[in-house]
Amino acid sequence: MRKFQKLEVMIRAVHTKWEHVANSGSINYADFVLFVAVNHGICTDYTLAYAARCNTHPISRRPISGYVNICPTAFNAMQRNEMQQWLSTIKHELIHAFVFSTSHYQNYVGAKPPIAKKPIPIVPGILEKFTRTDWELGGGMSSRDVYMIVTPKVRKEARKYFGCNTLEGAEIESQGGSGTSGSHWEKRVFENEAMSGVATQVYAVSRLTLALFEDSGWYQVDYR
């Protein structure tokens, strides 16, 4: 199986002058406000962290604030050689807050209302369902429903990566419950991509995920 090549993602930390917030009641000159917590919350034995958006822009519906919660039991058990995995996990969770979540799709610029909400929300032109009738199993052929992100840039990157000009888009995870299905790339297809649902190795942020950022209509992307 081909693995994605790692793209370097640079993040610049900026000190927040909270006295301005206290005086005015608002935060100016910020594109996104992130709240970080270390609480047990809804952590399970297998959860390292989780994140979500809080508020959206009233016109563009772009996320303008969100939170990430780090699960303290897992964090306190971290070994020195696991630091890179934790950094990858935090990047993964931030991408959920920024763009990659079932709660975001219907807010993408130009998105149509969802036509189905279960098991995975169907948003025409963004997330659609396809039925494969030639699914090969050990006991013979079967049919299977697959869910795919079909936005233009994601479709272009998926077709280029797999060398298939008829591919509808990029398949997303359909298992794992509401916290995983619909909000990750399919693990058996994309393996170590940063937004696959199970952390088995150091993730790589690929052009596929960057394409989703661009297709949302909220971000400008530098693929270099």
Gap between N and C termini: 24 Å
Question: What proportion of the residues form beta strands (DSSP E)?
Answer: 15-25%
Rg, rounded, reads: 19 Å
Biggest sheet layout: 3 strands, mixed
Pfam families: Peptidase_M8
Keywords: Hydrolase, Metal-binding, Metalloprotease, Protease, Zinc
Cofactor: Zn(2+)
Protein name: Leishmanolysin-like peptidase
Describe, in plain words, how this protein is organized in 3D.
The chain is 23% helix and 20% strand. It is α+β, with helices and mostly antiparallel strands and 224 residues long. It has a single domain (18-215), classed as Leishmanolysin, domain 2 (Alpha-Beta Complex). The strands form two sheets. The protein has a three-stranded mixed beta sheet with strand order 1-3-2. Helix 4 (152-162) packs antiparallel against helix 6. The longest helix has 16 residues, at 83-98. The two termini are 24 Å apart. The model is unreliable at 1-14 (pLDDT under 50).
Question: What's the layout of helices and strands?
Answer:
Blueprint: H1 18-24, E1 33-37, E2 49-56, E3 63-70, H2 72-76, H3 83-98, E4 127-137, E5 140-149, H4 152-162, E6 170-171, H5 187-190, H6 207-215
Parallel strand pairs: 1-3
Antiparallel strand pairs: 2-3, 4-5, 5-6
Helix pairs in contact: 4-6
